[in-house]
């Protein structure tokens, strides 16, 4: 101050009611709240130099506000939205007119429609095909393939950038052997089940990964590079670990729940896109001429629609949204 300097407030401060509301809303979203808390702890007095850890009592204020303002109130708001959504859904589907017994009967009826008959194998008259079916349905065969998947995944995790050549020489034959095992598995099941093999989604998943793995190996063998597609094909093998979902019932229930909820997630995503589209257009008109600064950088600004859309999506995830807000207001 004595040498011609001046105090410049940080964007997040408590100098007024409006500034305090904006700062506390920023803290409520959990974005950058740690920095605000420690700035408050270091604050000593008006126009005085901040003192490190001047007042630890401020920590209690922020922790209590996070518990009640963020964890409690925001989650309560989300819960109310979900409750209203479910109530509107029941009203639109006329389910609110059903009593409890009628509702249970409808759920049982839906489960009956979704259930599939149990396929029972009958001898085909071909000794080779019957033997393939016996092997494919044998529990030890399933455990062997599962062990191959886990071991192969661990082998794939051993690679890294600029790895020694001898390690690559060891892992390549191992991965090749595993791919042969998966090919034999697919061949046995395809022979045993015939066209019924493709009725199971997991079997389609298996055969796709096997083909992708062979394509990746052939591309490496003959030095074929098709841009990023080669890397994607090679990396696709790691997705075989998802077969764990098929083996464990609890994981399968969670996975099926996600699949069943996907249509509703699509509707929510479409609604989110409409909001982002609307605010992107508004952002270009309102902040399109704001100069590039720190957070409002060449990668995040409102100079044209596409970049504005990406910027708003970034802000929707909570990443540095307050910094972009303050830069846009300058």
| Amount of beta strand | under 5%
Biggest sheet layout? none
Distance between the termini: 24 Å
> Helical region count?
13
How many structural domains can be distinguished in the coordinates?
3
CATH class annotation of the largest domain: Mainly Alpha
* H-E order: HHHHHHHHHHHHH
Helix-strand layout with pairing:
Layout: H1 17-28, H2 33-42, H3 57-92, H4 100-114, H5 127-136, H6 139-156, H7 165-193, H8 201-221, H9 228-235, H10 244-247, H11 249-287, H12 305-316, H13 321-328
Helix pairs in contact: 2-3, 5-7, 6-7, 7-8, 8-9, 11-12
Give a verbal description of the structure:
- By secondary structure, the protein is an all-alpha fold.
- Helix 6 runs antiparallel to helix 7 and helix 11 packs across helix 12.
- It starts with 16 loop residues before the first helix and ends with a helix.
- The protein has three domains: 115 residues, no CATH class; 125 residues, Four Helix Bundle (Hemerythrin (Met), subunit A), CATH 1.20.120.350; 56 residues, no CATH class.
- It contains 13 helices and no strands.
- The longest helix is centred in the last third of the chain and has 39 residues.
Give the tags:
330 residues; mainly alpha; Four Helix Bundle (Hemerythrin (Met), subunit A); 0% strand
Summary?
The protein is mostly helical. The chain contains 13 helices and no strands. The mean pLDDT is 81.
